[in-house]
TrEMBL record:
Domain START positions: 29-207
Residues making up the signal peptide according to the UniProt record: none
Gene Ontology molecular function, alphabetical: cholesterol binding; cholesterol transfer activity
Cellular component terms per the entry's GO annotation: cytosol; endoplasmic reticulum
GO BP annotations listed: cholesterol import; cholesterol transport involved in cholesterol storage; intracellular cholesterol transport
Pfam families hit by this protein: START
InterPro entries: StarD4 (IPR042555), START-like_dom_sf (IPR023393), START_lipid-bd_dom (IPR002913)
Record-given protein name: STAR4 protein
Species of origin: Drymodes brunneopygia
Length: 207
């Protein structure tokens, strides 16, 4: 188990990595799934042997409220159907923490429940916010869970210029689920999970 990292350089590196993903040209992405709420693309990840996913959709609400529902905190567990528990293990400052969370089994439990320990950082980006994270090798793995690993991930949320009550939410996710899993099952689950994330979020913001 690694010691906790110094948060400042890790936060800075994470932010720069996400901004780099955000500048990848459209031609490098392939559509993986399209719903009325979001479009999901993917490209081979440079971090591991799976895919980097990009999800994007317009959400009807202000940036701060949307990000409050996404980042670690009291809202996330209420609406995210995939997340089954979340504990803040360490808080460095208001916008920076280490959290441990668990996810439900997927695809008729072909993908068993997973546990993650992530460093999470939320910062300003253009007129909006960026909430990003990366997994750490920290803390004991709980029984009955496989420890997954999130390579740099994050959500950019910026107000639409011509409609400030709406925000463009763009996510970059590259999750290594680990364990013995057929890659095709992982790819199916990831695309569906990201599309469902948008519809669940929209429902939560309306309540």
């Amino acid at each position: 188990m690694d010691p906790l990292p110094n948060p400042a350089p890790l936060a800075s590196k994470l932010r720069n990595t996400l901004i780099q993903y955000h500048s990848i040209g459209n031609g490098e992405w392939r559509v993986a799934k399209k719903t009325k709420d979001a479009t999901v693309w993917r490209k081979p990840s440079e971090e591991f042997s799976g895919y980097l996913y990009k999800a994007q959709g317009v959400v009807e609400d202000v940036t701060n409220r949307i990000v409050d529902h996404i980042r670690p905190g009291p809202y996330r567990l209420d609406w995210d159907s995939l997340m089954t528990s979340m504990d803040i293990m360490e808080t460095f400052e208001e916008n920076c923490c280490v959290m441990r969370y668990t996810t439900a089994g997927q695809l008729w439990n072909i993908i068993a429940p997973r546990e993650f320990v992530d460093f999470s950082y939320t910062t300003s980006y253009e007129d909006g916010l960026l909430s990003c994270g990366v997994s750490l090798d920290y803390g004991d793995v709980r029984p009955n869970f496989v420890r997954g690993f999130n390579h740099p991930c994050g959500w950019f949320c910026v107000p639409l210029k011509d409609s400030p009550g709406h925000s463009l939410l763009t996510g970059y996710i590259q999750t290594e689920l680990r364990g013995m899993l057929p890659q095709s099952a992982v790819d199916t689950a990831m695309s569906s999970t990201l599309a469902n994330f948008y519809s669940d979020l929209k429902k939560a913001l309306k309540t």
